[in-house]
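For reproducibility, we list the full input for the 5-phosphoarabinonic acid complex.
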Amino acid sequence: MSNIKINLENTGIAEKNILEYKEQVENIHKELNKRANDEKDFVGWLELPTNYDKEEFERIKKSAEKINKESDILVVIGIGGSYLGARAVIEALTSSFISEEQRNYTEILYAGNNLSSNYINELIEYIGEKDFSINVISKSGTTTEPAIAFRIFREILENKYGIEEARSRIYVTTDKEKGALKTLAQKEGYEQFVIPDNVGGRYSVLTAVGLLPIATAGISIDKLMEGAKKAQDKYNNPELKENDCYKYAVVRNILYKLYKNTEILVNYEPKMHYFTEWWKQLYGESEGKDQKGIFPAGVDFTTDLHSMGQYIQDGRRNLFETVISINIPNSNINIRPDDDNLDGLNYLSGKDLDYVNKKAMEGTIKAHVSGDVPNIFIEMSKLDEQNIGELIYFFEKACSMSGLILGVNPFNQPGVEEYKKNMFHLLEKPGY
Ligand code: PA5
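The corresponding predicted structure, in tokenized form, follows.
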């Protein structure tokens, strides 16, 4: 039984129109499965929940334990696909507020995802006397932001613990044989984890890229993989009629053809904020090319109903929404009666906060659908490792299907090189 359900009733698209894509979907399905075992292709993520390096998986758990014994903080250095997946899972599954006394696991902090000197200095100040380790993650091993951050934090680590101990506190996740980071890791003898050749950055959360920070944060990576495996089995059905993941991909493409070229991923749970960031990167980098593609946007409701709500209800009609709803919150709060009722809220007494949140969601969906914003509704029973694993795989697979229906290559990102060339030229990097 799946804990994730999709409802397309409010998209305005009839099942028969979806099923017109049956043949195309079946062909792409076959092609994807054929490509999954090609080590030179980028479809290795398709079988990751079952086909992964078991020895490395155990080593990830051991390293997570070691980091927890030795360090108050793990600085995860990476950008884009080399960091967003881990942050998405960690923020979704750990408390938003943990004091040092309450903390049972190493705190995960992030660097190398921007070039802000303020950010880095504030992070250095926050680390202060605390013990820390580093997990530097880069598939290419040459990305500027993480490379600079690593240089800075490595020096701090070496000054603090001496070269030898610093070495044992550095964990490198990179390509198995190439790149500057690989060379450095080999030379220094750092603990290393591999990003498989056939798994691209934004599809890599279920490799060591995501798994080491996630395990260090005290989250069960076994359960996460179990959830992903469930999705792998479930969405390997070539029958469009029975495959919700493919239906989502098809509906997006139909909406796109109807000039709905912006998709807003909506949550009513702030812990899902970084999940949306991860999703935005996955879809934006996979589909936005050849002057095509749905623009992936995101909002946290009800917060953003007070900022973006107006536009969504009344602005340019090129939007559709995909709402992720979590059926049962991990904890709830009762609204109690108040004798004076000066705030006028007694009509809610006896109800719980999640009930109010759900009514806000129902009311908003109704309003937006009637304002010509089609709605895709994804229900998740609760926020836990299995369901997040399942949802990750659902979106990855849907993304590849959607991109291939659109007629783009969902596994490359040629566009991101443009700004780099200019930046390197301006920085007078040799060769630019
Ligand atoms: O999805 C992608 O491929 C990118 O977003 C990369 O993850 C990002 O650019 C970081 O690259 P790297 O891991 O090579 O440092």
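DSSP finds 15 helices and ten strands in the chain. The CA atoms of residues 287 and 408 lie 7 Å apart. Both points were considered when choosing residues for closer inspection.
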